[in-house]
Amino acid sequence: MLRLPTPSLLALHGLCGLIAGLASATAVQAATPDLLYTVRPGDSAWSLMQRHLNDPARWLDLRRLNRLQGDRLRPGQVLRIPVPWLRLHSRQVRLLALSGQVRTGPAGSPGQWTAAREGMTLGPEQVLSTGADGSATLQVDDGSVLLLRPDSELQLRPVDAERARQALSRSLDSPASGPAAPPATPQIGLRLELLRGGLESRVAPQRDGTRLEVITPSAATVVRGTEFRIRATDQGSLAEVVQGEIGFGNAAGEIALGRATGSVAAAAGGAPLPAQPLLPAPDLAALPSRLSVTRLRQIDWSRPSGAGPLQLQWLDRPADAAPPEPAAPLPRLVAEHRLMPDASGRLPQLQPPPPGAYRLRVRGVDRHGLEGLSAEREVEIIAVEPPRPLLPPDEGWMPSGLPLLQWSASAGADRYRLRIEAQDDRPAIEVEVDRPQWQAPRLPPGRHLWRIAALECASRAGPCWPAGDFGPARALNVPWPAPELLEPQLDGHGRLLLQWRGIEPEALVQLQIATDEDFREVLLDEPRHGDQVRLPLPPPDLAGPLHVRVRPLPAGGGLGPWSGTRLVHGPMLRAGRD
């Protein structure tokens, strides 16, 4: 039976069919620095040196270590061979793709860690660490692909005596083995220690009997050919199988996990949870394949029954790339988000990654913290350039009241939404147009503010939604018409009656009466409501003539044009006094 050397972990077999039989047959073996090799019939000093030692000169050291008298060996004899002397082939792990902050260096010495580089190979006792915005895609020389998620640390474990014994046993038991067979390098399976964070794996089936082993602080996972995820948190370890089978356990027990199942091993101890069914994939059918950052923030995400948070992964995809096959290697992970519902169960707005082409993965998270099956969709996030107002110029005047509004065309926009607000109680005008211009209807006098926003639409018939907020307001002034001041009169009570027309009946106006035509010597300057006013006559020492004019005072601010000047002559004043 093959055994894991770590004292705190159960000896898990690689196939789930064998895990059920471990209850009565499992044993824990402490690691030893040397391999204990039992001499087989036909072994000789020469064949042992050729097949198992990485340096022929080591034979003399091996003789001294085992106190051999000469080079003769007898079947059944046990030899101690230090692991570093063995000719073994360890799996090579290469950094295939990096995103964000990723560092690497010797275990236990974070001060010596440096920035990781794509293409570099990780060695034993080397740690790979990703930051909050970092991820790393790793390629194993057996075809397996691993994805180290953000805020994670992964360490490659060195070859130990037990793993060397397993590799040597596989080599000796192979059909081509034997004293006369050519030298064959035993293959060492890959053992990884996930110190914290998450790891996603797509492991290639191994014909040489090797297996991937992933150790976390609270559990161990043994795999031969499968697609699975494992995470190490302060609360414990979580394993989720998408395809295939794995063994998952710790010192308190072990379970077999098959397709679409998961389990949790608590950091406080105890056997892992029985296999839990993973949540089904969310429905992304309503998600557009092309949308802006603004629209993406407004998405009401669909969650499968039983899901609390949603886990979103944004994987790199060139804009002209075809959708990958299900068995394709894991691409670069650009960003990852977990949307946590609030007390009412609503999910927060998403902060999406920069514009680009992505492969989006979404999965629900159940009450145990297990992530469910993934829904995937090819998504292009577009950058919609905000439209810029062009004409009329800011604070421009439009005597006709029929402005032609023009703005810059926005790349990525399907339509535009225009909003015109009057600075009074009138309702705003809001329209959607296809072109970057619009002939406005006749606007009432006053100051108006207009804004423009880009829209993206599902089709020419809609629906449409904002691709960004309204841009800054631009002011447009429509002048008030000059009021017509009528000929002054005297009413039946001897008062001066002034009337005007051409503006709204209850509009506010400014009334001025002066003794000179330039209105420097002003007798009266005050606002009045309505279209007429009755005033007492001036004192007798003002013989006239008096000059009168009026202009509107728009509710939104500004000043309207003056009317023509009317004269109140002396005879009228004297007649009123008589």
UniProtKB/TrEMBL annotation:
Superkingdom of the source species: Bacteria
Pfam families assigned: FecR, LysM
Residue ranges of domain LysM in the record: 35-81
Keyword Repeat recorded: no
Region annotation Disordered: where it falls in the sequence: 165-186
Keywords linked to the UniProt accession: Signal
Record InterPro entries: FecR, LysM, LysM_dom_sf
Signal peptide: 1-30
Gene3D superfamilies the UniProt entry points to: 2.60.120.1440, LysM domain
Family annotation (PANTHER family): FECR PROTEIN DOMAIN-CONTAINING PROTEIN, LIPL45-RELATED LIPOPROTEIN-RELATED
Name of the molecule in the record: LysM peptidoglycan-binding domain-containing protein
